[in-house]
Amino acid sequence: MNPTREECLRLMSKYGMLENIVSHSLKVAKVALFISSELNNKGQGIDLGLVEAASLLHDLTKTECLKTKEDHAQTGSQLLKEMGYERIAEIVAQHIWLGRAGNPSRATEEEIVNYADKRVMHDRIVSLEERFSDLKERYGLNQEAMDYLGRLQKEVYGIENKIFCILQFDPNNLQHL
Ligand SMILES: [Fe+2]
Q1: Across-strand partners of 120?
Q2: N or C: which end of the chain has fewer CB within 10 A?
Q3: Cα separations (Å) of 143 from 2, 126, 132, 147?
């Protein structure tokens, strides 16, 4: 069973999520749910409750990880697994790097949350181009960091192509949400 939206909001407050990360997560959930229901209109069978919960909880341990420097995709996933939320844990583990391609004609909840997170900069919907130029400005401090971001960018453009190939509309349409 997926936690309800209210249960997710309670968990976010219980784990001391910073206000700006809450706003970011709410917007990611909005984008991810929009993409999911459009995909379902194309017969994709996406679990909307799962997408909403995973979007709201994807940065559950990020606030703490800002101090500990741990990988919040891993610690968040671990915590959710311990709570018994196996599927959410899998999605959270893959919200930064997807790491596997899967069936090109079938979108997954992992891909949707991963992609929605990349389209929301702080609490604003932006293009991948804008999101990655900001990431490169903030984190691309040396060649190694730039290469890392370049590989990530390539992976996310792959997800965008897959999703919008199924949806048959332009990724810029999300801007109006
Ligand atoms: Fe994150």
Answers
A1: 125
A2: N
A3: 41, 25, 15, 6
